[in-house]
Every structure is written in C-alpha cells, then in structure tokens.
Amino acid sequence: SDKGSLYERIGPDALEKLVRRFYTLVPQHPDLAPIFPADLSLTAEKQLAFLTGFFGGPPLYHERFGHPRLRARHLPFEITRERAQAWLACMNAALRDTPEIPDAEAREIYAALSRVAVHMVNAGEG
Ligand code: HEM
C-alpha cells in the first residue's frame, strides 16, 4: 500500500509510549501479574524491539536477540485463552491511552496482535 508501513505511520516515539503504557497495565492485571517478572524493563525493551520490526521498521529484535521464536519463548509460561484475552485487553487499553496513535492505526495494530496472540496459547482446554 502507498500508506507506508505501520511503523512509518505511527513512528518510534508513539510506539515507545504504547509499549511503556502496556507494561504499566500488565502487572495490574490479575491474570497476567503472576507470569511476568517484577522488573519489566528488559521485557519492555525486547517487546519494543520486536514490534518495531513486526510493524515494518528496522529488525531490532533480530539484531539484538536473534530469531524471535515467539511461540517457543512463551512455552515456559502457562498461556490460556483467558490470559491471551487479558493480554489483548491490556493492549487495547494501552492503545486507547496513547492518543499519538490514530484510530485507524490502533485498529490495525490490535487486529495484527490478535492474530499473533492466538498462537501463544499453550495451556488449557482445547
Ligand atoms: C515475553 C506473556 C503474547 C511478544 C513474554 C513473557 C511473558 C509473556 C510472561 C516473558 C517476560 C520476561 O520474562 O521478560 C505473554 C502472554 C501473551 C503474550 C500471556 C498472551 C497471548 C505476545 C504477543 C507478542 C509477544 C502477541 C508479540 C506480538 C513477546 C516478546 C517477548 C515476550 C517479544 C520477549 C521474548 C524474549 O524473552 O526475548 N510474553 N505474551 N507476546 N512476549 Fe509475550
């Protein structure tokens, strides 16, 4: 599309704000708090690097941490459908709390992350 990548449209500053907001909400969610580390600074740094590339920007995660292997990296954590919904609810709230990201881009981000979140589910009834 001639609109450019999602990364180009939202820019690095808005993406960083989104990730920061997301990781202030995650430890406040009762379904998510138990599986995340107390210090979320490295987690947030990795997520920002990952999303930068995922949305069409420079491949920062690859450069710093190697192949993401996202599903494998999530296997040590019990991720139920309920937890995937909780993760997406935090992302949706973070998007709403980040006015620098226009509604159309917010919807696109949410849709893209919803598709990935489904694949992280590794526990619970099928
Ligand atoms: C890491 C949970 C979905 C990207 C993690 C960690 C947890 C977690 C517990 C480890 C944090 C740490 O030890 O630093 C979840 C849950 C999800 C979910 C419950 C619900 C479906 C996603 C999605 C993405 C994603 C959809 C990407 C679009 C990442 C990345 C890391 C990570 C990049 C860092 C991996 C690394 O250690 O290098 N996640 N996650 N996660 N997650 Fe998720």
TrEMBL record:
Signal peptide start-end = none
UniProt cross-references to Pfam families, sorted A to Z: Bac_globin (PF01152)
Q: Which superkingdom does the taxonomy of this entry point to?
A: Bacteria
Gene3D superfamilies hit by this protein: Globins
InterPro entries, per this entry? GlbO/GLB3-like, Globin-like_sf, Globin/Proto, Globin_bac-like_CS, Hemoglobin_trunc
User: By its UniProt entry, which PROSITE patterns does this protein fall under?
Assistant: GLOBIN_FAM_2
Which coenzyme or cofactor does it need?
heme
Transport among the record's keywords? yes
Which UniProt key words apply to this protein?
Heme, Iron, Metal-binding, Transport
Family, according to the entry, reads as follows: Belongs to the truncated hemoglobin family. Group II subfamily.
Q: What name appears for this protein in its UniProt entry?
A: Group 2 truncated hemoglobin YjbI
What is the organism of origin for this protein?
A: Deinococcus xinjiangensis
Name of the gene = yjbI
